[in-house]
Design a protein that fits this description.
This protein is an alpha/beta fold and about 300 residues long. The chain has one domain: TIM Barrel. It has 12 helices and 10 strands. Strand 8, helix 10 and strand 9 form a beta-alpha-beta unit. Helix 5 runs parallel beside helix 6, helix 6 packs parallel to helix 7 and helix 7 packs across helix 9. It is globular.
Amino acid sequence: MNSMVELTKKKTARRLPAWLKVKAPGSAEYLELKQLLREKSLNTVCEEAHCPNIGECWTLGTATFMILGDTCTRACAYCAVNSGKPKDPDIFEPARLAETVERMKLKYAVITSVDRDDLQDGGASFFSSCIRLINNRVPDCKVEVLIPDFDGDEKALKTVVNSNPSTLNHNIETVRRIFPKVRPRGNYDLSLKLLETSKFLNPNIPTKSGIMVGLGETYDEITQTMRDLRDSDCDLLTVGQYLRPSQKHWPVVKWYTKNDFEEIKQEGLSLGFKHVASGPLVRSSYHANEQYEATQ
């Protein structure tokens, strides 16, 4: 009998709450965008990170482009992206990306990348090229970048900031206590310093960060992380439910309710964030244009 109870508990732990279930993608717009991305040999974090919003966002003609390949030099315990030894960067990728943004007639584009610790500048020059080429080809399109920590290299950060992105995003991901367990190659304080330095280099560029919840953090730790981000002059925040990509990854410790997310949002706003997107399915670039507009 006890074994049956334990089996039931395990099944329940794997079962998604109703508010986390989404319709499988398959609209005409989704299929058209998927074909375009394959045609241009472009990767998206939407696919690589198994984002639950892929159907909604692609149907609206938006996507978060992932440059510098699909293989990360780090292996964070929560991330679905492949890790290992990446291929050499494709020098023509920024031009293809700019052409795709133009063909999609985007007004707001988001660019991220895998960690590339194998590159001298961590890939900063590629971010810079993408921003400049999109700005030249599609002047009306805003460009948000979601950057890695560049291993604390301020020169690399300056390369990106000097290209004048519309928003500079770097995710803290989790609270201080859990951070070293799930991001052993990163550093909590280094991530805060990156956001602070970005604002110092160009106070006019809004900064943004994101937190996943459900990894075992307490509410007080979430609040403290939001305070730490505000102390680093971070303007915008996203908060979403962590979803375990596979049994190999960090387990989901708690499912947060919609009311929990609303409480977190109100706390964040009271701390001074200009916009807080907080909800079960919220991810870093979800409705990113709306967050940008809140800073204008």
